[in-house]
């Protein structure tokens, strides 16, 4: 169809059905269509209000439409948008300086997403190993059930076959080991390994915190073999776990760290952080991106970093963790037929389904959404909570009230179900990398 666009294209009526009509079906979004949000409150096309405990998958950590972030972006919108990588700009220089001052890193590379940040980290690791040791040192080790993005390279590294089926042949020299298994790591990380990439807390894999001893063992094995240790903090970073980055709590310093999601509070930006010695292996022309490090994205990220990286702000994240975890523990104790023991760090929390409710995390979140609470899943067996870091005590209490009401309907649905086993349609795991 090549018809001329009508003048009302920006205001034409659209519905959830429009998604099915015109978009590539890579997602299965909810029936409701959000149109407006502020803080943790969100409204759909029908005017119904929701409490958002998803943060756009751990992205809008300062809430929707944060006034200081909006003001910073608006000012930059009227100043300078884009230059191209033949020029630098002031906001990117300020952001790089701030991130290196706040972390172990000495150099920063900016891109547009978590997948791109991980792609850059993996390319850097290969380049570093080839230059320093030779082409035989090229293998990448990652963990089963991990998630590192959706490019062919990063999705192959992720170790979840459901995301790679049909995209073969996959990139070679990739190995996958069980998460938190030190012996498996010792067997896999040998002299031909260029890099080990790991999430300090697995997000899409079920909200599973890394064992500090395991992460320390990875650090030691990388030191012994000359491999680079890459921490994927796309989901766990920017205050989500109660420190700016989770590696600080683990007392393990990576060689390379990736960040995205909350770095821009919803404005697309990713970052790869590393040392000067390692960074020098990506010389002029060896890697790049058209939009990465543009003035708009880096202005937003700098304001986000300025707000989050404050002792009082991060202390509140830990305080909110205690309040939500207390509620989840009581919920699991009161309804052991529905939930197992909650887990997580900071405001990235997982509530596993009990054995008798396995495979039904999406059923529960759909009920909660109908009642006005937006939740996530981390696979079919885990309900995931990732509220904005500015969540209030009143909002925590309201989320607990709705979750308890949702349990009652969940149990009623289970009683009404026929004896025949349920046949669930596959639900694509959401991601923003």
List the helices and strands and how they pair.
Blueprint: H1 16-22, E1 34-38, E2 41-44, E3 49-52, H2 55-58, H3 67-77, H4 90-102, E4 107-111, H5 114-132, E5 139-143, H6 152-157, E6 174-177, H7 182-188, E7 193-198, E8 201-202, E9 208-209, H8 212-225, E10 228-232, H9 247-250, E11 256-259, E12 270-274, H10 276-279, H11 295-308, H12 311-334, E13 343-345, E14 348-352, H13 361-370, E15 373-374, E16 376-377, E17 382-385, H14 393-416
Parallel strand pairs: 3-15, 5-6, 5-7, 7-10, 10-11
Antiparallel strand pairs: 1-2, 2-3, 4-12, 8-9, 11-12, 13-14, 14-17, 16-17
Shape: globular
Largest sheet: 7 strands, mixed
Determine and state the CATH class of the largest domain. Answer: Alpha Beta
**How far is the N terminus from the C terminus?**
32 Å
Task: Describe it.
The chain has 14 helices and 17 strands. By secondary structure, the chain is an alpha/beta fold. The chain has two domains: about 15-65 and about 310-415, Aspartate Aminotransferase, domain 1, CATH 3.90.1150; about 65-310, Aspartate Aminotransferase, domain 2 (3-Layer(aba) Sandwich), CATH 3.40.640. The strands form four sheets. Strands 4-12-11-10-7-5-6 form a seven-stranded mixed beta sheet, with helices on both faces. Strands 1-2-3-15 form a four-stranded mixed beta sheet. A four-stranded antiparallel beta sheet has the order 13-14-17-16. Helix 12 runs parallel beside helix 14 (about 395-415). It starts with 15 loop residues before the first helix and ends in a 17-residue tail after the last helix. Mean pLDDT is about 95; it is low at about 420-433.
